[in-house]
Amino acid sequence: MDFLRPPTWADALAAKAEHPDAVPLQGGTDVMVELNFGARRPAALLDLTRIADLAGWDDDGGRIRVGAGVPYARLIDGLGDRLPGLAQAARTVGSPQIRNRGTVGGNLGAASPAGDSHPPLLAAGAVVEAESAARGTRMIPAAEFYTGVKRNALAPDELIRAFWTPPAPGPQYFSKIGTRNAMVIAVCSFAIALHPEERRVGTGIGSAAPTPVRAVAAEEFLSAELDWEGRTPLAVSAAQRFGALVADAAAPIDDVRGTADYRRHALSVMARRTLTWAWNDHAGDSRREAS
Amino acid sequence: MATPIRTPGRVAAPGHGGVGDSPLRPDGTLKVSGEFAYASDLWMDGMLWGATLRSPHPRARILSIDVGPALAAPGVHAVLTHEDVPGRKTFGIDHPDDQPVLAVDQVRHQGEPIALVAADHPEIARRALDLIAIEWEVREPVTDARAVLADPVGLAVQPRGGIVRHQPVRVGDVDAVRDGVDVVVAGDYEVGIQDQAFLGPESGLAVPADDGGLDLYVATQWIHNDLKQIAPCLGLEQDQVHMTMAGVGGAFGGREDLSMQIHAGMLALRTGRPVKMSYNRYESFFGHVHRHPAQMRYEYGATRDGILVYADVEIVLDGGAYTSSTENVTGNAASLGVGPYEIPNIRIDAYGVYTNNPPCGAMRGFGAVQACFAYESMMDKLAAACGISPVEVRRRNAVAQGSALATGQVITAPAPMAEMLDRIEAMPLPPALDAADIRDLPGGASQTTHGEGVVRGVGYGIGLKNICFSEGFDDYSTARVRLEVIGGEATALVHTAAAEVGQGLVTVKAQIARTELGVRRVTIAPADNRVGDAGSSSASRQSYMTGGAVKAACEAVRGELLARAAARYGHDDLSVVGGAVVSRAAGVLAPVEEVLGDDAIELTREFHHRPTTRLDPVTGQGDSHTQLALCVHRAVVDVDVELGLVKVVELAAVQDVGKILNRLSLEGQIHGGTAQGLGLALMEEIVVSGGLVRNPSFTDYLIPTILDVPPMRLDILEHPDPDAPYGLRGAGEPPTLSSTPAIVAAVRDATGKALTRVPVRPEHIAG
């Protein structure tokens, strides 16, 4: 197995073009486990940890561009106020040690349906910045990024450089079911993001379909249903309908972590609860503005 | 020959504490800082790495094995199959003909060892395993324990039959009283397969010795019983195998059966090179036995006041493919099947059966855990049927000193169960739910609730556990104590073969030596077979048995020391106090160092517990247990009743330990046992379907984290047992029994659900 350690981004792109079967390595929290257990034996590893600019972020006031090498722990500390949904999800990733190493870039690269970053990226409308030496930069919306179980839209010569997401324009929540209270892989998960200026709701579902998915019908129903201007309290029936539509958007299976029926049920509950929290925050903001 | 490194050496016991103090562990800082040498850290220059080929099938015939391509691979030094076993082809913890060293013509469970490789590098060894070609004839596995019970001949997994042991217990006449009772309650209960989940995987190093024998460094629970099994298979005498305990990273029963010992020995003898074997986490799930899963049917009859009249019980334990400890686990399930309650009419049938499921054997609680979940669930059911509180129904039926157990055995030592129930009931309850920090709520950091759907519940559980081996077994222990002057100070060297598995025996042995010899400096020799048998670090028995042996050896050494002092100073009213020999009449005579001079006093003593009897095979009657111990738990839980997620808020325990030897270690044992019971209640299960393990990883076999284990309020009682050293009562297992039913009872209290199976899964609550 070759171990490639490009010092610059240009070198990394060149290496990936030359070794399209090389597996990129950031924190190693997925890749190294697979290697150690013989689940995967790639021809080469492409270590991206020497490339300094992957480990930072830019906030130009419009959209935030987060490098693929920013570990969860730094994302929580440095961007938690602007990307609260993603930060909440990051707090549920593994243990403190894993959060010190693991990255959103790695989560995108692995594209596991259970990856904790995916639902908030979908809900926020994030965009993945991919790049190849041959064709340059390509911007891939998160909703188009996940193409199958542990498969994504990257071409063999492409690497993930960053993801772009607007600072939260409204309340965001992430919720995840696990059968213990920390350090647990998702049985299923849900993210919601309110976009009040656009009068739109974003959603993301994790671990309940072959890929992370949006609950589009639920988003459309709620975007029309909510009283964005008046911020009147949420009708119980609307929250329940939203929950049901989110559950309908999932395509879960029975597995060792949980049953399909439980996943649908839990998604409907999480959707209802997170919506309630988000809408109460939104209405609370209005009350604060009025006072 | 070079010597291995990272093997255990003598350790100086820190502190000056005697019995009743809490000196720190000698290995504590090393373990916390990552410096402790576990068995997986063993190293020797020039060593080879061993690897094991295991069956992918739960049941199959082996038509042929071709090791040629593996043997031809560069870096591979040996590929061995059953044909290469130098001696006896089978071994077993209780029966030498139980299981093959390497599969011969068939496999009976997934993960059964088939072939071994030794290579220059572990990765080369693992890849060579892939080159071993096996022709299979796959057969339908037998996986339903109750079906085996119905057709033990047709579904026999073993030539010796389908049933390992049937142990009945008969007291009074259940059928005669059944129609006359006021209240009948019944329930079916199920316990899933729990794993010991020790963090240090099976590891060891085998080194060919100059005398043609073998030096073995292994993390195990019972050196001498290992040797009895290892030596005949390797074609060696027991004294040709020099065995030293390597650093143990947890055991909980999972190291009682052999894992890599014979395999590494075979590879070392064949290659003439040191061979290390170390399982990874995946292999570890197949490398040791688990806790027996159980299916249990209970029916109790009682008066309307909740006084038990009869118990009719069937317990079916799935032992998997081999016998392991199933006979004794079944014996415990039978003799402790109704727990610490006086019941005049009892019919218990406990069965251990063979299937093609993963082999099950010893795990903390050993047959008593499964029954305890059922009988405590039944007591709650009875309380509800009679309209009295769960604590009151237990109090009304509680055993006490002088009570007879189901086996007819009379509890001769204190058994203050009623007092323990009073005390746990009187403990203050934790404050009401505070939803300010999501980490305090069900779901924790995963933020599934901000307080919505959360209901509090309270539940109780009490368990009765036998301490030391039962049913006629003489599980004695041996200790050698040497007292001499080193560097001007009297120093005791304590040498036993007992396994320090994290429980703190290493600390307690030094405390006993200080107390009995009146010296401050104590050194603990590594456990090995240059001293006699210490028995297993199992059955909560080492403080009792090896503690008793160290005490006896120290008393003998002290006697010899005082005899010398008496001869020299002409007094016979002597004792050792504060490092000096003191005469009652004449005061301080001389420091111990002066009495010893250049001589050493070294004596070895065995300690035996009182004899026990077998259970009658028809009636289940007999004085089968050495000692009995009680622990009671109260669990307080917050349950998200909509999502089925649980946060255990508090676990309170009252346990009678007879005598506290080391409060710090003891509390650690109670905390740990309680946490292991919590794991069984809420998350820990090896999920098996069609004989195949579906979750052999710590990603999917979940053990409790710090956010799952709550603060614990402990009330430790000291009612001494006159038969035991210092009056102590074994303490490691009882809390593992009672915390599980207490937690499930609390979840039932919060949800109103029946919850007849552990671990309770979210869909059982939310569904």
UniProtKB/TrEMBL annotation, chain A:
Residue ranges constituting the FAD-binding PCMH-type domain according to the UniProt record: 1-170
- Keyword DNA damage: yes or no? no
Question: Which protein, by its recorded name, is this?
Answer: FAD binding domain-containing protein
The yes or no answer to whether the keyword Flavoprotein is present is yes
What UniProt keywords apply to this chain's record, in alphabetical order? FAD, Flavoprotein, Oxidoreductase
Q: Which InterPro entries match?
A: CO_DH_flav_C, CO_DH_flav_C_dom_sf, Diverse_Substr_Oxidored, FAD-bd_PCMH, FAD-bd_PCMH-like_sf, FAD-bd_PCMH_sub1, FAD-bd_PCMH_sub2, Mopterin_DH_FAD-bd
Biological source species: Actinomadura parmotrematis
UniProtKB/TrEMBL annotation, chain B:
Family matches, as InterPro entries: Ald_Oxase/Xan_DH_a/b (IPR000674), Ald_Oxase/Xan_DH_a/b_sf (IPR036856), Ald_Oxase/xanthine_DH-like (IPR016208), AldOxase/xan_DH_MoCoBD1 (IPR008274), AldOxase/xan_DH_MoCoBD2 (IPR046867), AldOxase/xan_DH_Mopterin-bd_sf (IPR037165), Xanthine_dehydrogenase_dsu (IPR017609)
- SUPFAM superfamilies linked: CO dehydrogenase molybdoprotein N-domain-like, Molybdenum cofactor-binding domain
Q: Where is this region: Disordered?
A: 1-26
Domain named Aldehyde oxidase/xanthine dehydrogenase a/b hammerhead is located at 33-140
Is Oxidoreductase one of the keywords UniProt gives this record?
A: yes
Q: Name one GO molecular function term.
A: xanthine dehydrogenase activity
Its keywords, alphabetically, are: Oxidoreductase
Q: Which residues form a coiled coil?
A: none
- Catalytic activity, EC: 1.17.1.4
Class of the enzyme per the UniProt entry, highest EC level: oxidoreductase
What NCBIfam families does this protein map onto?
pucD (TIGR03196)
UniProt-recorded name of the protein: Xanthine dehydrogenase subunit D
Write down the species. Answer: Actinomadura parmotrematis
Q: What is the lineage of its organism?
A: Bacteria, Bacillati, Actinomycetota, Actinomycetes, Streptosporangiales
